[in-house]
């Protein structure tokens, strides 16, 4: 029997989001025994420079460490990999230039999912400054004729506070409520769904609290990983 493909996960950005993604990958896998689960290698490097500061504030470029992590996954034999950070996707084209290893884009997977939903013509984005500044989701959604809806400056500040609080393990009930209020303003502006376009957002905003259906790109990516691994194994 041929060996099952090895799935690479480039994580640590942040650690809690990486654990959350792996949990979702396990949940998405149709397995009833240990042996039926995917072979996975997680390279979690929390020292990767802050992606938001790199894009918006002239912070250190995270590309070299992303390249090093992708190379570790390739050297380990990964057939492909995913990155559990939306903002890091702004740097992945440069990573691909240096490491010849396919990656699945959380942004593209999400845009494809939303484009298949007939009731979605606009999507509210809860994301980091980096992801919004890079236009990752705006471009992909616009290509699918979906209008992106963004928070105002005060709302985006509240989003970033919640994201960094999750990373610090210090999220408060007040910050959770503020995130719900931001989502409500996106709905008021016409959003049909709320996209958790940062992997920390689902750890701060539940589907039950969201004023519109909450789209979790990590779940969509996990499902895509399972499908791709199955196709490679067949």
From TrEMBL:
Q: Recite the UniProt keywords alphabetically.
A: Isomerase
**InterPro entries, sorted:** Asp/Glu/hydantoin_racemase, Asp/Glu_race, Asp_race
EC id:
5.1.1.-
Report whether Isomerase shows up as a keyword of the record.
yes
Q: Does Isomerase show up as a keyword for this record?
A: yes
Q: Name one GO molecular function term.
A: amino-acid racemase activity
* Enzyme class, spelled out: isomerase
What the entry lists under Pfam families is as follows: Asp_Glu_race
Question: Gene3D superfamilies under this entry?
Answer: 3.40.50.1860
Q: Which domain of life is it from?
A: Bacteria
Q: Which family does it belong to?
A: Belongs to the aspartate/glutamate racemases family.
Question: NCBIfam families annotated for this entry?
Answer: asp_race
Name of the protein this chain belongs to: Amino acid racemase
Q: Which organism is it from?
A: Nesterenkonia alkaliphila
């Amino acid at each position: 029997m041929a060996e099952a493909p090895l799935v690479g996960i480039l994580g640590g950005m942040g650690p809690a989001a990486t654990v959350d993604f792996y949990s979702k990958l396990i949940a998405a896998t149709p397995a009833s025994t240990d042996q039926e689960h995917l072979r996975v290698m997680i390279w979690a490097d929390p020292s990767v420079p802050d992606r938001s500061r790199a894009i918006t504030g002239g912070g250190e470029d995270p590309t070299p460490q992303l390249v090093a992590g992708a190379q570790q996954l390739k050297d380990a034999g990964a057939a492909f990999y995913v990155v559990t950070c939306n903002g890091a996707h702004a740097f992945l084209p440069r990573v691909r230039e240096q490491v010849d290893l396919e990656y699945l884009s959380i942004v593209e997977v999400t845009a494809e999912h939303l484009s298949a939903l007939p009731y979605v013509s606009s999507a509210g984005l809860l994301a980091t400054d980096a992801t919004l500044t890079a236009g990752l989701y705006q471009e992909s959604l616009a290509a699918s004729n979906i209008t992106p809806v963004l928070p105002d400056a005060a709302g985006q500040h509240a989003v970033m506070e919640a994201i960094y609080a999750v990373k610090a393990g210090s999220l408060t009930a007040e910050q959770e409520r503020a995130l719900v209020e931001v989502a409500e303003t996106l709905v008021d502006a016409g959003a049909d769904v709320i996209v958790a376009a940062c992997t920390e957002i689902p750890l701060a905003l539940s589907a039950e609290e969201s004023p519109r259906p909450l789209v979790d790109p990590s779940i969509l990516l996990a499902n895509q990983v399972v499908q791709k691994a199955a196709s490679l194994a067949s």
